[in-house]
Amino acid sequence: MSQDREMDTYLQGKTDLSQLYADAPQIEPPDHLDAAILAEAHRAVNARPGSKPKRRWAIPLGMVASLFAVVMIGLQLPHLLSEPALQQAPMEAKIAASTDESAAAPALRAQNERMKILATDKAKTEMTSNRPAPVAAEAYAQPAAPMAAAPAPAAKRLEIRERAEIQSAGALSKENKSADVGGSNLNDALESRAPAAAGLASSPPVQLGRALKKDETDQASLRPEDWLTRIKKLQQEGKQEEAKKELAAFKKRYPDFPVPAAFEVR
Amino acid sequence: MREEVADEQLMELYRDGDAGAFDILYRRHKGGLYRYLLRLCKDKGVADELFQDVWSNIIRSRERYQPVAKFSTFLYQVAHNRLIDHVRKTPEILLSLDAENEDAESLSEIIPADAGGQPEILVERKRLVETLVNNIEALPALQREAFLLREEAGLSLEEIALATGVTAETAKSRLRYAVAKLRDGLRGLR
Question: What percent of chain A has pLDDT above 90?
């Protein structure tokens, strides 16, 4: 009981025990500890994540960039989706779309003429006989699907007429002329994926170059299935070298299109 | 002006990025905490290490600080836990902490001599203080801790209980034994 009273007195701070203890030397931590701890405290505050300079422009910039990307994709998407349809559109439409290009004017006129002649000849052929049109000697050099069935005489007449017109026009641009120089390079021709009108504008005067350009136009306008059919046909006719080149061009044009294994082994 | 701000408010200011608030807080508590650790572990090197660890812990945990209790209770709770961790890692310290009459280095040996006042009174007073300090060192560790928390940190019984993780009754019992032993030791001198 007396201990409890003594305890209460002590807790009230009324005893000399606490006063005596207060007289004990007040040992302090060494100065180097003070400095180290205070430095750590200040460093911690300065290194706070919240105290970092905020990049206020980061979020708006990110949003603008995202919006721009979405708009660009939105603008490109319809074009990308309609690309195969454009490739199969009649050649006249492509030519008409590019008639304002003065440099291409003579060549385009020639192409128009050629289309008319082909159409006339095809009609005549169909009227006289129902037999399928013979395959031209340069099958891979034939124009797009509608023109693939064109008889050889018509193609020959076209060659002569076009050459005459192009030579007389002489309206090829410098770029086109420089392209003509390399026109005999098969790889260059195949790699070029210019639209039909552009291809016509740069029609080379050299026969081989023309054939290659036609081939390019054909490939661009062919659907993948039709193109493979044509390759298959070449293989069946024993034109393995041409078929191989066609296949290479096909793979370059449609890298993701599954090619049957039968095409590879031959 | 700022010296009058409460500990808890200073800690909140420091939590919110005011480094100057920590300086005040540190100045207020560094002596008591250091003596608490030194008189408990009786080793200056260990006391230095623990002292720095405790403050580092306070600095690191500032983001989570909530003034639910007195800052001093929070500080000595951290110190108590750090001391317990250290004792568990080095059992020889535990022996010295629990020894009733450990013949360790006397604290009076590291206490600098007092140079002021009347010589006779000072000598007598110094003798009493030395006896008291020696008797404190001789107390069992838990009773010693309770006494030091009361004297150095100014904690109440409930706060001592909170800081050491025991009930208020246990804390009271420890403190009562400590005070009784120290008083008995001083009575013999008078």
Answer: 6
Nearest beta carbon to residue A27 from set B23, B34, B62: B34
Residue closest to A192 by CA, chosen among A249, A141, A242, A246: A249
Answer whether residue A266 shows pLDDT above 70: no
Read off the pLDDT of each residue in B113-132 and give the average, rounded to a whole number.
71
B contact set with A (CB within 8 A): 14, 17-19, 22-23, 26, 30-31, 34-35, 38, 48, 51-52, 55-56, 59-60, 62, 110-112, 114, 125, 128-129, 132-133, 136, 150-151, 156-157, 172, 175-176, 179-180, 182-183, 186
Helix (H, G, I), strand (E, B) or coil at A63: helix
Do A150 and A249 have their domain in common?
Answer: no
Q: Nearest-5° angle of CA B25, CA B30, CA B36?
A: 135
Q: Name every chain B residue with its beta carbon within 8 A of the beta carbon of A3.
A: 176, 180
Residues of B in contact with A7 (CB under 8 A): 172, 175-176, 179
A30 neighbourhood in chain B, CB within 8 Å = 48
Among the partner-chain residues A17, A34, A42, the one whose CB lies closest to the CB of B183 is A17
Task: Give the closest-approach CA distance of A39 to chain B in angstroms.
Answer: 10
* Residues of chain B above pLDDT 70, percent: 83
User: Both A264 and A155 in a single domain?
Assistant: no
Q: Judge if pTM exceeds 0.90.
A: no
Residues A215 and A260 occupy one common structural domain: no
Domain boundary among A200, A221, A242: A221
Q: Residue B17: list chain A partners with CB under 8 A.
A: 45, 48, 50-51
Nearest to A20 among B18, B59, B132 (CB): B132
Please tell me the distance from the alpha carbon of residue A34 to that of residue A105, in angstroms, as a whole number: 90
Side chain identity at residue B44, one-letter code: K
Residue B4 is predicted with a pLDDT of: 82
Average pLDDT over residues A85-114: 53
**Which structural domain, as residue segments, surrounds residue A236?**
222-266
Nearest CA in chain A to B49: A33
Does residue A163 form part of some domain? Answer: yes
Facing A30 at nearest CB: one of B48, B133, B179: B48
> For A190-198, what is the mean pLDDT?
38
The chain-wide mean pLDDT, for chain A, equals: 64
Number of domains in chain A: 2
- For residue A257, the 8-state DSSP code is S
- pLDDT above 60 (res A171): no
